[in-house]
Amino acid sequence: MKIVLDTNCLLVAVAETAPHHWLWQAFIARKFTLCYTSEMLQEYEELLLRYYSPQTVEFVIELLFSLPNTEQIIPYYKWNLISADPDDNKFVDCAFNAGADVIVSNDKHFKILKTINFPKLNVVDIDLFKEIVLYGSE
What is the pTM of this model? Predict the structure, then answer.
């Protein structure tokens, strides 16, 4: 399964004591392929540095480059589907260009995608994604 992970979900998954650390563990265990763009990677790094040590951030970024279940995407199409927060469009563009199965996000701005027929992109929150990954339901 290919996914695009919004930064808000990555932030709450990295710490070992975080309630959503299962997501990071599932990534390490290669339960899904994480798709990202260079623009997303910059945001990941920038926001992770606000909450985590530089060593932790370096470790996270290194894993994104080294694990076989990551895929760097070059977005050739930009849809600009989220007008309420245009910065979120980088995740949408990545998902479309990657052929991702889902975008995992707790951001309310992504709800607009449920009303758009093309391109059809599935968005799930972190709790529903847990059901999908750990228990195989959707």
Answer: 0.90
Q: How far apart are CA 60 and CA 128, in angstroms?
A: 23
The CA angle 19-64-5, to the nearest 5 degrees, is 50
Q: pLDDT of 81-123, one tens digit each?
A: 666 666 788 999 999 999 999 999 998 777 867 777 776 788 9
Residue 5 φ/ψ, nearest 5 degrees: -110, 120
Return d(Cα 133, Cα 138) in angstroms, integer. 9
Q: What number of other Cβ atoms are within 10 A of residue 50's Cβ? A: 8
Sheet with 33-36, edge to edge strand ranges: 70-72, 33-36, 2-5, 102-104, 123-124
How far is the C-alpha of 44 from the C-alpha of 60, rounded, in Å?
Answer: 9
Partner residues linked to 132 by β-bridges:
none
CA 88/CA 8 separation, integer angstroms = 11
